Amino acid sequence: MKIVCIGAAPTALGAAYRLNELKNEGNEAAKDAEIVLLEQEEIAGGLSCTVTDAKGFLWDMGGHITFNHNFPYYEKATQWAVDDWNKLARNCMVDMNYLYDTKGIHLVPYPAQFAVPLFPDEVKNRCLADLKERYENPQDGTTPDNFEEWVLQHFGPTILNTFFKPYTKKVWTVEPLKMSPNWVGTRVAKLPQEKLEELCSMDQSELANADFGWGPNSYFTFPKYGGTGNVWNSMAKKLPNEWFKFNNKVTGVNHKEKTVEVLEKGQTESTKMSYDVLLNTAPIDQLVNNTQITAPLDIVHNKVFIVGVGLRKPMTSFLEKFTWLYFPDREVPFFRVTILSRYGEVTPDSDKYWSVMCECARPIDDTITEEEMVKKTLDGLVIKDMITREAIESVYSITLPYGYPIPTPNRDRELARAHGELERHSIYSRGRFGGWKYESSNQDHCFIQGKEFIDRVILGEPEKLYKTGVPTIPRG
Fold this sequence. Notes:
With 476 residues, the protein is α/β, with parallel strands linked by helices.
């Protein structure tokens, strides 16, 4: 069996790692399987790569971290790839300055719905009334049609209007009304009545030291050196070298012939490569358009601008304890700012420099330029008293044309239609944009999708993490 993978990001590396593991174990079913990873860039990682700017600052393509409790298999693989890791306590806050009618920044604990006791009295009382009504009249049997209805069902209109609407618009670039509730899972914390009553019983001094955290993700890990991309580059280097073809871009897929067109960098003519099974980790909408295997998909994504700012020390004092901050405030372009230099050695000299990385989302048809976004971002960081212009040593920016796969109400139906046709032709589309499901698109999710793909096509085991929406097609 010849397996060809489009891309060499976490999903494809999960497949390669698993196949290598099976071969090393002497698994009979894997003995005759071969795999080729076709990557258009010169390094592995995809959206999980790390770049170094002209001044020597390292930048990830977004806020990538690892919660190592999620998948022990993923932790084992990444520990195999990289030896030195930092373990950090998650400490993130939300800037809600517009609630307090203050300029600059006004931080409250994350998630914002847990910080209700700290809201101004008028807003707090309306939030509490909404929540009291929902505790006394639960609507758990009612299925919401969209994310706005889900928020109304669990939190009420005040929290919807004060936090979820502005923040959703900044991250997703669409209104909550235009999003499905299917993606929520554990990503949006509900507020237990007991927790709310406990917080509301505290005075201001007690609230200042209260535990507002939720869920098991209180700690995360990050490579000590090389940024997130170090994980995937190191893993690729430890796997069989002949499995990887870098600087090779897939320009076409013929699902009837079971071939891919591959253009190597520096060449003018493409070559054909045959496959028995194809793992696509590139955007599924592009794959469908290229193959015309079914009608174009009605699915939506946005674009994200990454703006990294390298700064001379001393570090802004109030940022020293935080890992990242959320910004629903419409007056600044970023929805999240990561204090990246806290994570690992990502500056030219940690004694002299520190860094922040900003993420700004826009609809794909937004006409703002990268240059304009950089200016707005720097202005916003100054407005929020996070940096001074005089301390700026380096500014890095990049536009990611595929930022977030937006969970629209018809997404699952459209994806099921695509997967049904693709898998009939032995094409499996997985990963952040290959699978297009935000709720299962973290690095660990994507890696496990690759692992489970191999378990399915080699061992005949059903996938557990990624749900295509169509019945599993038996092997052969």
